[in-house]
Amino acid sequence: MGTTHLEPVQEPKYWHLKTVLNEALDSEFAVGEVLPNERELAARFGVARATLRQALEQLELEGRLQRRRGVGTTVAPPRMGVSIGPAQGSWPGAAGDAWRTVGCVEAPAPAAVARLLGEDPDSAADAGTLVHTVRRVRMMHGQAVATELLYVPRTSVPGLPETLSPATHPRAVLRELNRLDLESEDRAVELGSARAEDAKQLERLPGAPVLVVTTRYVAAGRVVAVAVATYRADTCRLTFGDTGSMEITHHDGAEQRQAS
Amino acid sequence: MGTTHLEPVQEPKYWHLKTVLNEALDSEFAVGEVLPNERELAARFGVARATLRQALEQLELEGRLQRRRGVGTTVAPPRMGVSIGPAQGSWPGAAGDAWRTVGCVEAPAPAAVARLLGEDPDSAADAGTLVHTVRRVRMMHGQAVATELLYVPRTSVPGLPETLSPATHPRAVLRELNRLDLESEDRAVELGSARAEDAKQLERLPGAPVLVVTTRYVAAGRVVAVAVATYRADTCRLTFGDTGSMEITHHDGAEQRQAS
DNA sequence: TAGTGGTCTAGACCACGCT
DNA sequence: GCGTGGTCTAGACCACTAA
């Protein structure tokens, strides 16, 4: 990455800059390596820092870079493929999955969730059903890749005792849920930005781009649970389907060296 | 939306601004309505235009706003649910789907595609297989929501004549493809930014956020085709699963009035 | 041609991670 | 405390759309 000042083009500077950096990343940097700091880079390319940042932002969005305040900008490893249903025992709480339960409360369902549960919109308006709300975090390669809120109406798990200790509560809900036999799952994926709470658990700043996966679990003809999972969009590629053979984690880039 | 100057908080201004605007959008604006211009809004909230823009950018990312150069900023309708296989005859070219074919060439497969097709990485390095490359656009409600490049190796459609006119070529490829019986599909979804070419067809600026859906079609134990589809992330919610009953296009917001 | 959003600049200060 | 990325400002000019 030389002191290449940009030749005048009729293409936004930040766009051209992005291309140049992308190529430099492929050919001159190893995964995990730290780039020069933003002031340095901006000077080297002869642009304002804000312009340089616009290019870096996009590269981070595309999963090529990782930036951390107080630390620096590093070359990101290829996105990891995370398997989303129906395979790999994603039925919440199945043994061996990579979810870690971090809490559970019992509260009225938010309006949006009530609608997904197939409530009558009117009745949901004034009094949402009581739902067990389990918060979980999905770990992969020692990193938090997703947070999830799992909503289970009390009516879905009638076998539960009235009062539960915070320690056993989530486990009990998941256990009861696994007793039901799952008929099907509906899923939707959309782009969102991390709310403050999620951002913290994903070790990102609020507003970071995330992929929101909404799942409805159907058993015995009824929606028995709804999950809203928030995946880091920068580091994750969501994989669907039977085999999981697309889980190959390799990338285009020329050499795949490793930083010390 | 009053002349509410922001009270001093220890939260980024643009973040707070986003919250305020989001609420105003729910309560004081109808879908399709145009907002005051950026200079006006910035003045009204007592912030620099760049700061105001940071808030607007996020709201656009979340599908709440739509901005068009030379026109203005309007309140976006709720995201539309677009169905992604395996239902709804998504096997390319099936009758009645909303894809419009815009071109077709025969060329060596790019390295990334060759890998997805299950090629030997070494042989792919020096000589990619010849593939038919069909470019399609997915329309919904009269709007382009996705572009797709469908890669079909010549070996997958041996029945095809050597030379084809540009007009009949794509149709012929799709027809041959439909003769095979599809065994399964692998899919992956990740965040990307629109390349110049895609952006144009999606009526967005280059770099706009998109959801990239990569599909591998398997028939007779082999990968017979690979599709890379690029969906507008601002206007689309991708839906997966059996019923498509999550296709409800309604949103949280209080009233859902309609602009004139 | 007037008005919009998009790009760009050259500064300043802040919050955070390290050491 | 020092260096990093994150936020913010107050300008300027450009590219596009529509009247």
TrEMBL record, chains A, B:
The keyword Heme does not apply. SMART domains: HTH_GNTR, UTRA. It comes from the Bacteria. Keywords: DNA-binding, Transcription, Transcription regulation. Pfam families: GntR (PF00392), UTRA (PF07702). Residues 11-78 form the HTH gntR-type domain. This is GntR family transcriptional regulator. It comes from Streptomyces humicola.
